[in-house]
Amino acid sequence: MSGATIALLGQPNSGKSTLFNALTGLRQHVGNWPGKTVEKKEGSFVRDGKEFKVADLPGSYSLSANSDEEVITRDFIASGKADVVCILADSSQLQRSLFMLADYAGINVPSFLLLNMADVAQDQGKKIDASAIEKKLGIPVVPFSATDAKSYDSFYKTLERAISKDSRIDVEELAKQYESVKGYREICDLIPDNVIDGYSSMWLAVKVIENDAVVLAKLKNALSAGEYAKIEEARKNTKGAVATGNCKFKWIDELLDGAVKTNDKQVTLGRLDRIFLNKIWGKPAVILTVLFGLIASFIPALPFMGVGEAVLALKAPVMSGLTAINCPEFIVLIIGDVIIQSFSYIFKMLGFVFGVTLVFGLLEEVGVMARISYVFDNTMGKLGLQGKSVMPFLVSFGCTMGGAAGARVIDNWGQKVLTIALAWAVPCGAAWATIPMLSSIFFGPGAVLVIAVILITMLLHMWVTAKIFGRKLVKKEDRYGMIMELPPYHKPKWGALFRYVLGRTKETFIRVTKVILLVCGIFWLLSYSPSGNGGILYNIGVAIEPVTKFFGLPWQLFLSYVASAVGKEGAIGVISALYSGGAYGTAFTQAMSGAANTSNLGSLLLANVTKPEALAFIFAMTFNMPCVVALAATYQETHSAKWTGRIVLYYTVVSLILAFLAYHIGLLIW
Amino acid sequence: MEELLELLKDGHARTIEMLADQLNTNTEDIKRKIEYLEKMGLIKRSFSPSCGAGKCSECAMHSGSAPCKGCLPDGGFKNMGEMWEVVKNTQ
Predict the structure, then answer these.
(1) For residue A540, is pLDDT > 90?
(2) Which residue has the higher pLDDT, A596 or A73?
(3) Close Cβ partners of A289 (under 8 Å, ≥ 6 residues apart)
(4) How many folded domains does chain B comprise?
(5) How many CB pairs under 8 A join A and B?
(6) What pLDDT is attached to residue A653?
(7) Any chain B CB within 8 A of the CB of A61?
(8) Residue A514: pLDDT band with limits 50, 70, 90
(9) What do you get for the CA distance between the two ends of chain B, in Å?
(10) Which of A395, A598, A398, A630 is nearest to B72 (CA)?
């Protein structure tokens, strides 16, 4: 004795597979739909001596022709291979998940509706009156829970009811909705009944309006050329899928009206969002948050500073110890000036890497980062950019290369190039480690002020750069606003956050150690001279100093500015080498002659570099081109050597101008 | 949904809550409409922060190593919510 064939229809995650497995158990067969890579699952079960066949149709959002899954699904149903269609919906979000039902309505196959996950809906405090929905819908409707064995009894009963009654969806109300759509009546009249088996003219007309390629092709085959041309003509005047989608949603709402009770709470903005999303206060609030974050990152950096000092304190005893055992002077100097000196810097820098990564990681975790991208969306528009350009900028706070790669999502070439050009102005993680370290040596607590000024300069820089490059790269155009789904604020997961931050710090430690030791070593060698009369670099440096002094940079700082173009961390290596190099200055000789207190690198720098010079260097280094890797990434994303070259040249010039300004403003202050 | 798209024409970004407020409806309604518009190809996701550095299923499907469009590079942010933009040049 044979029962019926049941087709299971539902969106992904509607619980279709759970139901299928529970119904068929081991009696299932998995294969492919002919000619497609879509999985075909069939099975059977026996109930009251009758064998029922079950087809688990591929899960899809709707029944439009957007994917193979959807076309297979609707063709299978319309072909009449299924005697009854079981439509699944998620009770916990009916407004949304009944869309499949709305898209199905109009296919002439008996069906019933399973309100799955009834238990979840109940837990949410939703009360669903299935019989009220059934009355309006004209097919059996039953609350169900695929994971609960007890609810299967009602499933079987409803199944039999649907088969015996040959129940079909009452589409009268839906058709009324469609009547209001421009062009619907005209198209519907042009489509004769049963022109394509299984589909009503209403359903076909709606798919025509939605510009469904498969349906259009079928109609072209079935109708005369003249009739089809009329349909095509009428279709062009419709508003497309937006209009028909609206009807479906309205129909769903009417269906649910009075049948669903929820303890809905009014959505209000949180206290923080009332500030961050405010039109006037949003931007200052965001900038202050970032600024305070950067300042706060000093606190976790302090222990690292201590380690750095401790390493440096080793320098004098180690060097005198080595000298005592008659180690050659050259090796003593390498160990002292290159290795110990560099590690002292590396540890201090790591402190800030740790602090900055922690603060930015925290801002992201709790959900503030997402608000930043919202707040600056409109500003992006004023710069001729898309709202999503904010993301590469934010990523650039970590690494400019990431920012350049992140610009990939911008499909307009000009906007992409401009986004990358602006992302270069955002000081990267290595710069954010170097700036506070140097500023705290020279300005003490004034470092906070330096950071604030750097942030403001960054914003101005980006604005000016956008004006300069924008004219050639982007043209003013109407732009649509974005829709954003902001993540809710939540407490940070400290464990995961610290693992992430420590991982990043370790990564940076390895990379930075390599770069600094290498750069420091090379520059130290170039500046080393056994006779004490100055090495190669010293001679070159002194020769170019009249020019570099113009920008407020002594030759040592100028060379480390040049090195910062290779990588910002490299600058530290150069400073370390040149200000302690064998050939340079009396300060070093003094330090070596046993005056332990002057062996402190901070005081060594202070003795040789004035505050305005230091300020000039900080600005020159920060706004110099980010690094060689970022340069490569920029070329890769823009595919333009010309524009990459332009950006490099522009940043070099601007960073020197900023150094000049910083130096002269510094001279006025000190 | 026409009103929704019309609203975005002024170029201002909006959160789902703001759209719900301005269109006198609830966030669930906005969410299902966003889902519909996305499936119909009228809007698209700008970023999928949930998928990072070419490790999402979509990247794996398309090409070997290169991250898919909309995938953030490594070290990018993850808790950024979702963003959609209107696809131009359609009806």
Answers:
(1) no
(2) A73
(3) A363, A368
(4) 2
(5) 173
(6) 96
(7) yes
(8) confident
(9) 14
(10) A395
Mean pLDDT, chain A, whole residue set: 87
Q: What is the DSSP letter of A117?
A: -
- Listed by number, the residues of chain B in 5-24 with a beta carbon closer than 8 Å to a beta carbon of chain A are 5, 7-17, 19-20
Ramachandran category for residue A48: left, alpha or beta (phi over 0 → left; psi -120 to 50 → alpha): left
Q: In what order do the strands lie in the sheet with A50-56?
A: A28-32, A39-47, A50-56, A2-9, A84-90, A111-116, A141-143
| Domain A173-261, second-level architecture | Orthogonal Bundle (1.10)
Residue A40 DSSP SS3? strand
Domain boundaries of chain A, sorted by first residue: 2-169, 173-261, 281-669
Residues B63 and B84 both lie in one domain: yes
| Residue A66 touches partner B, C-beta closer than 8 Å | yes
Element (H, E) at A213: helix A213-222
A405 to chain B nearest CA, in Å? 6
Whether A267 and B27 lie within 8 Å, measured CB to CB: yes
Rounded mean pLDDT, A396-417? 84
One-character DSSP codes across A456-513: HHHHHHHHHHHHHHHHHH------PPPEEEPPPP----HHHHHHHHHHHHHHHHHHHH
Q: Is B27 on the interface with A (CB under 8 A)?
A: yes
> Which H/E stretch holds residue A84?
strand A84-90
- Flag residues of chain B having pLDDT under 50: 49-73, 90-91
**B53: contact with A, CB 8 A cutoff:** no
pLDDT in tens, A239-275: 889 999 999 999 999 999 999 888 766 556 677 788 8
What would you report as the CA-atom Rg of chain A, rounded to the nearest whole angstrom? Answer: 35
Judgement on whether residues B48 and B91 belong to the same structural domain of the protein: yes
Q: Is A307 helix (H, G, I), strand (E, B) or coil?
A: helix
Per CB-CB distance under 8 Å, the chain B contacts of A277 are: 15
Q: Are A455 and A429 in contact (CB under 8 A)?
A: no
Q: What is the pLDDT of residues A5-58, one digit of tens each?
A: 999 999 988 999 999 999 998 888 888 888 777 888 999 999 888 999 999 999
Which residues of A fall within a CB distance of 8 Å from B58? none
Closest CA to A255 of A149, A171, A316: A171
The answer to whether residues A85 and A37 touch, using CB atoms and an 8 Å cutoff, is: no
Domain that holds residue B17: 1-40
Q: Look up the ipTM and state it.
A: 0.81
**CB-CB under 8 Å, B39 with A64:** yes
pTM of the model: 0.80
Give the residue among A545, A546, A566 at the shortest CA–CA distance from A557: A545
d(CA A613, CA A550): 11
d(C-alpha A299, C-alpha B53), whole Å: 31
> pLDDT tens, A196-223?
989 999 999 999 999 999 999 999 999 9
Q: Would you give the distance in Å from CA A586 to the centre of its chain?
A: 52
Give yes or no for A276 touching B (CB within 8 A). Answer: no
Chain A positions touching B42 (Cβ under 8 A) are 241-242
Q: The tokens of A32 are what?
A: 């492919």
**What are the backbone angles phi and psi of residue A268, rounded to the nearest 5°?**
-125, 155
Report the residue of chain A nearest B17, measured CA to CA: A267
Q: What is the torsional sign of CA B9, B11, B15, B17?
A: negative
Q: How far, in Å, CA of B53 to CA of A408, rounded?
A: 12
How far apart CA A520 and CA A214 sit, in angstroms, is: 67
B90 plus B48 within the same structural domain: yes
Q: What pLDDT is attached to residue A264?
A: 64
Which superfamily does CATH assign the domain made up of A2-169 to?
Answer: P-loop containing nucleotide triphosphate hydrolases (3.40.50.300)
Residue A67: which region, alpha, beta or left (left: phi > 0; alpha: psi -120 to 50)?
beta
Cβ of B13 and A365 within 8 Å?
no
Point out which residues pair with A54 in neighbouring strands: A6, A43
